[in-house]
Specification:
Order of helices and strands: HHEHHEHEEHHH
Helix content: 55-70%
Structural class: alpha+beta
Shape: rod-shaped
Strand order of the largest sheet: 1-4-3-2
Number of helices: 8
Radius of gyration: 47 Å
Strand content: 5-15%
Oligomer: single chain
Number of domains: 2
Largest sheet: 4 strands, antiparallel
Number of strands: 4
């Protein structure tokens, strides 16, 4: 199986499609990356601002009032807790990826230097609805204030990023915020995929029509060249169309005219030579009649008749007459 088509049409279509697919993939990758970064920034900014608002709300409250307020404020996709242990320094340093650094910067922007904060980010974490044991910052169990969900409902939800932020209040209380960002926010935009597929199909259709239209003069030129071998006096090509096509048609017509002139010139020369051969043949015939040997005279006469018939056939062919041999039965 040939990977590269042999026809010019197939090769042009292959080159166009390859370039188009590469361009579409690169543009889609750039679009998806920028979209994911933008959505992550928006989601992280919204979560950081909410954390800062909750911290300012909890700061003047008593411990009992804070616990009641935490139960009220815990709502998807963020849970608030007052009973979590501090995030280990090694774990916080290990989780300083791009998402963690960006979220920490936004959180410090909204909190200022008044409240110290620590942030970790985990990837591919299921939503905080699944009952189960806690695994520190790397896993989420059902938090206080959350309603347990059916496991079948949870299986339909996608894993995502888990932002764990801890802020220490002025009285030493540690507030933990668990924010879950679904993968749906950073997943591939299927509408963009659909639009790219429609665009690709439309460009493929237009490319096929354009390439076929552009290569049609080549097919006409090939047919004319094939027919030229059968009929040298065929009508000339129309010198119309694009500049290159008209130039090729003009060159083909010029070649055909030169061939016709060449054949006519050679025909005139051959006709003159055949006509001039009749005179010496006639003289030889007359001289053969003077031979005394009858057998030798008969051989000379037979050779001269063959020469005369060939000359006559040549002249007849050059005049456009068809002088073919008579059909004879052949024993095969």
């Amino acid at each position: 199986m040939r990977l590269v088509p042999r026809s010019l049409l197939g090769r042009l279509v292959l080159v166009l499609l390859t370039g188009l697919v590469i361009a579409e993939l690169v543009s889609f990758a750039i679009h998806t990356r920028e979209r994911g970064e933008l959505l992550s920034q928006v989601t992280g900014m919204r979560s950081a601002q909410r954390i800062a608002d909750i911290v300012r709300l909890l700061e003047p409250l008593t411990p009992a009032e804070r616990r009641k307020m935490v139960n009220i404020l815990s709502a998807p996709p963020m849970t608030v807790s007052l009973d979590r242990s501090p995030i280990a320094t090694a774990e916080a340093e290990r989780d300083k990826n791009t998402h963690a650094l960006l979220f920490s910067a936004m959180l410090r922007r909204f909190l200022g230097n008044e409240w110290p904060a620590a942030v970790t980010v985990s990837e591919n974490v299921p939503p905080p609805f699944q009952p189960g044991p806690m695994h520190g910052a790397k896993g989420m169990a059902m938090r206080e204030g959350w309603m347990p969900m059916n496991p079948t409902m949870h299986s339909d939800m996608q894993a995502g990023l888990l932002f764990v932020a801890q802020v220490r209040l002025h009285d030493g209380a540690l507030v933990t915020f668990d924010t879950h960002e679904s993968r749906e926010a950073t997943d591939w935009p299927y509408r963009v995929l659909l639009s790219l597929a429609v665009l690709l199909a439309a460009v493929i259709g237009v490319s096929l029509i354009a390439v076929r239209w552009a290569t049609r003069p080549l097919n006409v030129l090939a047919d004319a060249a094939d027919e030229l071998g059968k009929n040298i006096n065929r009508p000339p090509l129309k010198e119309t169309g694009p500049l290159e096509v008209a130039r090729a048609a003009r060159a083909f017509n010029s070649m055909q005219a030169r061939l016709i002139g060449y054949i006519r010139e050679r025909t005139r020369i051959l006709a003159a030579m055949s006509h001039d051969l009749k005179t010496p043949i006639t003289r030889l015939r007359l001289r053969s009649e003077l031979l005394d040997d009858a057998q030798l005279r008969a051989r000379f006469t037979r050779d001269l008749e063959e020469m005369e018939s060939m000359v006559a056939a040549t002249l007849g062919f050059l005049r456009g007459l068809e002088s073919g041999e008579a059909a004879e039965p052949v024993d095969i």
